[in-house]
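Here is the promised in-class demo. Please do not try to memorize the tokens; focus on the logic of going from shape to residues.
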């Protein structure tokens, strides 16, 4: 089951507090702030919104 639009609307990047968007393959959430660029994985249909678990995407 994909992330609901309601949940996606309230989730924010824990580092910069900007919005996140789901990646096209639905495997992660990406911060929309171009300076932050953190990508948070989705494991077992649960977003892992921990800065230590995130990776920077180019």
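The designed amino acids, position by position:
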């Amino acid at each position: 089951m994909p992330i609901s639009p309601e949940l996606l609307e309230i989730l924010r990047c824990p580092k910069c507090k900007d919005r996140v968007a789901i990646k096209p393959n639905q495997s992660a959430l990406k911060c929309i702030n171009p300076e932050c660029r953190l990508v948070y994985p989705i494991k077992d249909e649960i977003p892992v919104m921990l800065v230590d678990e995130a990776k920077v995407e180019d």
